[in-house]
Design goal:
The chain is mainly α and about 260 residues long. Helix content is about 75%, strand content about 0%. The chain is built from 13 helices and no strands. The longest helix is centred in the last third of the chain and has 28 residues. It starts with a helix and ends with a helix. The mean pLDDT is about 85.
Length: about 260
């Protein structure tokens, strides 16, 4: 992998992590289009995912700081309740990650039929959320767990994590700005935990094809584009414009499926 490929894939990751179009699906499509070996670029995938985690922290640092301040007050306050809801939302994906880690990893091999099919499912979810009746309801503990189940399904390449969680929250009639922030915060610990687990398991140590400079370039590209996309996505959710992304996911999904059969 060279610098140009790293920049392109980094931007793809940064934009699509927050936009409801599946970062994992687009990253797989990007690797296939650029001729990058999917199995030998796991370390790059981990690095750019880490970059988008940093993007989230930069955008929501005030909210994260407020949550920690509330927690250390050792009271059952609004911040503590919110933190517990975030933890509840993480339970499904943590269980899935520890139970089926190898099976999940085996899905990221550039299978365009799988990616295309999952993108069509993402399109359906976004469409359902667009027509769901909206209220100003706050996220409940039960809603947190259901949204967490949606996040667990998003381990499949082509299922958008932000698309699945935000759509599920909107279908459950939670208010728009609240579900957008919740969706972006709930992924922090699972991604950090998954990356640390890969490092501890030694899964990344065998990859020597990608230089440190390429990883740094990819990280910066993903981080900068992630910051921009996160801010953009918050506004999109508030305006209720997710239907356009449903159309986009459907078109890309169909394109990926056609590519699978004709390539």
């Amino acid at each position: 992998m060279n610098w140009i490929e790293a920049i392109i894939l980094g931007i793809i990751q940064g934009l699509t992590e927050f936009l409801p179009v599946s970062s994992s699906g687009h990253l797989e499509i990007g690797k296939v289009a650029l001729g990058v070996n999917a199995e030998k670029s796991l370390i790059f995938t981990v690095v750019v995912h880490g970059a988008t985690v940093m993007s989230t922290i930069v955008i929501f640092w005030k909210d994260i700081l407020a949550i920690f301040k509330g927690l250390f007050a050792f009271k059952w306050n609004d911040e503590t309740k919110y933190a517990v809801k975030l933890i509840v939302s993480m339970i499904p994906v943590i269980i899935l990650g520890f139970t089926f880690a190898d099976e999940i990893e085996s899905l990221f091999t550039g299978n365009m039929l799988l990616v295309g099919s999952m993108l069509l499912i993402t399109a359906l979810l976004l469409t359902f959320s667009y027509y769901a009746k909206q209220t100003e309801k706050e996220i409940s503990f039960s809603n947190s767990f259901i949204i967490g189940i949606a996040q667990a399904f998003a381990v499949l390449p082509g299922i958008s994590r932000s698309g699945a969680t935000i759509s599920t929250g909107l279908i459950l009639k939670n208010k728009k700005d609240g579900i957008a922030k919740f969706s972006f915060l709930m992924v922090l610990i699972p991604i950090i935990g998954a990356n640390l687990k890969d490092l501890m398991d030694g899964k990344l140590s065998g990859n020597s094809d990608i230089s440190a400079s390429v990883l740094i370039v990819g990280f910066l590209a993903a981080f900068i584009s992630g910051v921009l996309a996160c801010r953009w996505m918050i506004g999109i959710v508030k305006k209720g414009k997710l239907i356009y992304f449903a159309i986009y996911c459907a078109l890309v999904g169909l394109g990926a499926i056609i590519y699978y059969f004709v390539a």
